[in-house]
Amino acid sequence: MDPVSLPAEATGSFIRMKLLFAPLGIGTGIVAGLLAKRAFEGIWSAIDAEEPPQPDQRDVRLLKLAAALALEGAIFRLAKGVADHGARGGVARLTGRWPGEDPANAA
Question: DSSP per residue over 46-90, as a string?
């Protein structure tokens, strides 16, 4: 198979970009997770004086548990998405190439 017919995912530059971005993506994901946890704890404390319920607690109202889990998930997903997009934008500014699938280059 000649290199011209290889999919973009198999090209060397794609693999190098993926390897370059991986540590940055992991690091920003960890930081985003820590910030999301603090944000959730702060928001939950404004909603309820008690600690947020956990799934392993026996005596917890299902509605309260579902609300806490939904809020925590939404905050985490927002923080992770914004951090990931920002990290990719930073890499693109430094390298001139968007790490991952670039809709502008998709045909």
Answer: HH-SSPPP-TT-SS--HHHHHHHHHHHHHHHHHHHHHHHHHHHHH
